[in-house]
Amino acid sequence: MLTKQELEEFSAEANLLYLDHISIDCVVFGFHEGQMKVLMLKSKNEAGWQLPGGFVKKEEPIDVAATRILATRTGIDEIFLKQFHVFGDADRNRQHNEMYNKVVAPEKNFFSHRFISIGYYALVDFIDVNPTPDAFSELCTWRDLDDLPPFLLDHEQIFKTALDTLRLQLNYQPIGYNLMPKEFTMPELQKLYETILGTKLDRRNFQRRMLGFGILNKLEATRKGGAHKAPYLYSFDLDNYQAALKEGLKSGW
Amino acid sequence: MLTKQELEEFSAEANLLYLDHISIDCVVFGFHEGQMKVLMLKSKNEAGWQLPGGFVKKEEPIDVAATRILATRTGIDEIFLKQFHVFGDADRNRQHNEMYNKVVAPEKNFFSHRFISIGYYALVDFIDVNPTPDAFSELCTWRDLDDLPPFLLDHEQIFKTALDTLRLQLNYQPIGYNLMPKEFTMPELQKLYETILGTKLDRRNFQRRMLGFGILNKLEATRKGGAHKAPYLYSFDLDNYQAALKEGLKSGW
DNA sequence: CCAAAAGTGTTCAGCTTACACCCATGA
DNA sequence: TCATGGGTGTAAGCTGAACACTTTTGG
């Protein structure tokens, strides 16, 4: 449990360092052993979990702030990030305040201010991440998408909005480069799409479609060790992938 | 030109009334006589035009703030609004500051603070709008999309991002209800799509596709007065339109 | 050699695309 | 009556969905 003194010290520093009223919350998606995962923090002070977040320094661009925040939580410096929504209800941190105001006088507590939060989602390669808790959390760890803990504040809404956004993006942007390891098999990539979408896809149609995008390189090697026919390995063709990111996969009109 | 005193008075009030560091900028699209238009304000103090914008009151949800800001600029209370991006570079209001700091001491000037701006776009029926300038503008008026004036600050980027977003939305959401009058002809609706997209579309395919969405009611009447065959009038089927807004027009996966 | 996973191929329906044709209207 | 815009129709081609067959692997 955080002490009153620790909170007051943090608040004094935060007032000097950060822009008031603006926060950033991040939904970090990872994928490992056929499971989609989110990075979450278990609060020291409250019974519940939060998304990794932080504040914006007085002279810092918001994208830089988001990158910095996630670098300290994951150890990754270059991270794929996208802002997706702003959460600006007047009482989104009421739950927080009721708890904090018992410990620290509101005027000495940075957290009791109203914050408008910019939501970012991140896609990372699971194995690159070194989950590191912040001063207000006792634990930072991956949580399976189908086994999520109770969220604090409006973080469940933030998470759900991020997932909805990711599902939409899937339709007109390539996804996978940031979530998959360097080399992977087609069934593994399919599993990623299936867990994001929450549906089963046809193996053969998926393969044709993916290859049709022209963003994959088929490698010589196969993944041995499975109990059955060894699938081919693929890697992303980074040039074509980047191009597809910009132009989109298919227009519509 | 605004006086020093006016600025100081506004700043003193703004500090009490508004959240610091957060602003809202709106891209209001309208459509009239085959032309796509944006609502813009001509600055009193600088040579250039701005998008309508404002600040968030201390206890006000951001969506309410955006609605309030646009209500005072347009006279419309119920306005179709969507947040689309946050603009948070550290120096986005540098241009502003250099000008303002000559007039008012920075510590007495709300505008010289750093602002992170939440971008909203709005779709409105042209004829409902009563353009009303704010205290810092000498003029509020529609500007044609293909005849835009020089923008102040980063408002050109905000505008372009809004237009890009609108073009994307077109692919999976119905657009038109908020931009068209109650009754309209198919060629008129097509003109809207063409100006948003910046391309020509096939008359017959457009009609089939639009009707295929099931969001239009064909009316008995026709639009007389044109020099040629009178086109049928249509109205939007609001129920189906709303449903399409939620579910999207076509998935993809 | 067999079960299960993976690679490859084919068919069919529905949609998009690109046109042709006819009708109504005011000049 | 004729030029023009608007309504309706249709054939060709592409794409996604559904499904069959073959190949490879470890047990």
From TrEMBL, chains A, B:
Keywords recorded for this protein, A-Z: Hydrolase
One GO molecular-function entry: hydrolase activity
Superkingdom, taxonomy of origin: Bacteria
Keyword Hydrolase: yes
Chain ranges passing through the membrane: none
PROSITE patterns linked to this entry: NUDIX
InterPro entries: NUDIX_hydrolase-like_dom_sf, NUDIX_hydrolase_dom, WH-like_DNA-bd_sf, WH_DNA-bd_sf, WHD_NrtR
Domain Nudix hydrolase: 19-167
UniProt cross-references to SUPFAM superfamilies, sorted A to Z: Nudix, Winged helix' DNA-binding domain
Protein name: NUDIX hydrolase
